Amino acid sequence: MQPEPDYRQLDAEYVMRVFSRDLMMVRGEGARLWDDRGNEYIDCVAGIAVCSTGHAHPRVAAAIGEQAQNLIHVSNHYYIPGQAELARRLVGITGMEGGRVFFSNSGTEATEAALKLARVRSGRTRFLAFTNGFHGRTCGALSTTFKPSIRTPFLPLPYECSFADYGDLESVDEMLDGSVAAVIVESVQGEGGVVPAPAGFLSGLRRLCDDAGSLLILDEVQTGFGRTGRWFGYQHDEITPDIVTMAKGIGSGFPMGAIVAREGLEFRPGEHGGTYVGGPLACAAGNATIDIIEEILPDIRRKGDLFAEALSAYNPRHAGLMLGITVGERCGDVQRRCQENGVLVNCTNGHIRIVPPLVITDEEIEKAAEVIDEALCSVVL
Questions:
Q1: Would you state the pLDDT for residue 357?
Q2: Which residues of the chain have pLDDT under 50?
Q3: How far apart are CA 180 and CA 170, in angstroms?
Q4: Does domain 7-56+298-379 have CATH number 3.10.450.50?
Q5: Could you count the other beta carbons within 10 Å of the beta carbon of residue 305?
Q6: Peptide bond preceding 58: is omega within 30 degrees of 0, i.e. cis?
């Protein structure tokens, strides 16, 4: 019998070296993961805020499995099982009565759709985004992503975009004029280190966009589907954007994204499309995910407060179950120390990012906080 090939060797030989990784995860349940060596972890990464209902939630798995036994894929030339229902529910939870949905396969694709829609309906060509903002890596989305190290190699990018200071309405007012199709903003900057928008910032953007005749796009890819304690982060400011982008938590790990655009703002036939968008399996996962989050949503803010209180010595920034702690150049060391002690966290731009599954228990929060605290004390202090 031939021995099974070593996955590390195969990966090194055949996979483009884009990702840094050292573990093979083989099983998950709730907020727990197990690697191929039997080690158990409390997962505070959740696929980067993707596994909203936890790993392998039985109701999501059952919905996908049942649908897969009937129909895995069919073209959007036909009605898709579950798609219209999911669209109705997305319009409802965004609070955008009369709005319409376009489905995608990812957050980046959702950004691409939002930018295209803003351009074609406004007749304008420029965009305004924010320092330390992140909206995706395809060339259109990258036009509105700030980080120079990932932008510069691909210049010139297809869309002209200026960057205002996040949280600074005066900076926006100086740059916003009649040539700007849309302002795109995150309600909490995730890749930027979990930085919530200051109070009144989003409502101020709404006012400035209205004055300039520009659209307001809220990027809720990381913050949507209960992550901040509301369905979407902008709902804390009680505003209504023109377009909302979403993905990650929408399908509990099944690849999916979408935009919801306000009433009267939509693509016309032939202006956009996609082979796999809003497919049967994705819609089954999305509908099951919404069912589950409806049940757990009222407790998410309390869980986030519990996590933040346990780490209060480090002045964490947080919105619901989305926490960030500034560490600096030794962030990677903290991440490794946590991993060695059974807790997975994410390091982004010198900040520890904590985005566990929304089903994480109080006991898991307390244990994870102990491990993170020990790692910060031993590595940083």
A1: 98
A2: none
A3: 16
A4: no
A5: 14
A6: no
